[in-house]
Amino acid sequence: MKINFKQDWKLLSKRAAIFYILFTIINILTFVLLLTQTDAGLITPLIYFVFWQVAIWVYYMFRYKYKDKTSGGEWIDAAMFAIIAATLIRTFFIEAYQIPTSSMEKSLLRGDFLFVSKVNYGARVPMTPISFPFVHQYMPGSTQKKAYSEALKLPYYRLPGLQTIKNNDVVVFNYPGEDEFPVDKKTNYIKRCVGIPGDSLAVVNGRVYINNDRNAVAVYGQMSYNVVTSTVLDRKALEKIDISEYGYNQNTGSYEMWLGKQNVKDLKNIPGVVEIIPILDRRANRAEIFPNSEMSKLGMRKYVVDWSRDNYGSIYIPRKGDILPINKTTMWIYKDLIQKYEKNTSYVIKDGKAYINGQELTEYQVQMNYYFMMGDNRHRSADSRYWGFVPEDHVVGKALFIWMSIEQDCIYGNRHKSLLERIRWGRLFNRIH
After folding, report:
1. pLDDT tens digits, residue range 188-228?
2. Please, what is the Cα angle at 135 between 398 and 393, to 5 degrees?
3. What is the pTM of this model?
4. Angle between the N-to-C axes of helices 73-92 and 43-61, in degrees from 0 to 180, rounded to the nearest 10
5. Cβ neighbours of residue 336 under 8 Å, at least 6 residues apart?
6. CB 355 within 8 A of CB 347
7. How far is 46 from 51, CA to CA, in rounded Å?
8. 284 bridge partner residues
9. Residue 69 φ then ψ, to 5°
10. Which of 5, 200, 243, 324 would bridge with 238, disulfide CB 3.0–4.6 Å?
11. Residue 268, SS3 per DSSP
């Protein structure tokens, strides 16, 4: 195949030529930012730059030079355009996600489909850019073959955004666990950011306090309640007031329900309801609670803190530049921060002291901002109370609005609901608060 850039350039339409020039300028700026603002060196940003320049050029050359000469050229052209355009849009502007669990109910429901903005907090440059289109971790139909290659890895860099993360923003991020995956290929989670860098957070009897002030509870958030009744409640009556998560204890004749504020008000009017009592977790020294979870794994139970999911903290959320004191408690609280997220692999805890490179550590300067995430369904959410802080390089974007919402297939009366009946029409295009 003979390549003559000058002649090939003349094949492009005016609009295509303008787009390629604009894309080249953006690609050069990204290259310069990676080169000057990260520790990537020269080779990796250069490969990233060349890859995208060549990918766009190959597409245009196929479209204007070979499409009409190739069998199925129109289909190949459409597929190439869709892949390139969708990749750029999903990476730098906006991406669609689905809510798979009940951890954010009733703010977000299972079956909600969201658009998440990459622009608000600044688009994160892909750290693992070589990957199969539209696939996150594994190839379709496989749980073994990864859908990406780590042959080319970029350091963390985020383009300038429109805003910073605020308290109570609903944020999509990569789950901080799953160390077997690169950061940008970890499972996507969605939670409410209750604590931002520099905040001190505490949970007292299920109520969140930020810097000693009570935090606003999400309008549609849920807690668990013990509902005492004089009879078995009608399922359809509960569905009508939007109560779908509950269990019945035949021995006590009571229900455990997960309810929001409006649910509690509506439930009081249901015949047979005697009493609605909030359920609070008062168990102390919970092994699964962060940072006890880390200590328990290593057999360090003597250092555990007296926290539970409803009585938690106070805990300080680090911000970039902070100098943290390292003592017998904070050495565990900030262990993952220092060792894993900020890549001090020599960090160890021995005989009640922390060490880096064999030197005792009494303070540590933080290199990134960190966040504390919680689900609005406070008793059915695995969140920062269980696995700790979310580093800024794990942040994906801000949840904007719901574009579709489909109720999971369920029985209504004696029949299954149809697809049209399962669409929650009232939630379509609702903003996320």
Report:
1. 999 999 999 999 999 999 999 999 999 877 778 899 999 99
2. 40
3. 0.89
4. 140
5. 176, 294, 388, 389
6. yes
7. 8
8. none
9. -100, -5
10. 243
11. coil
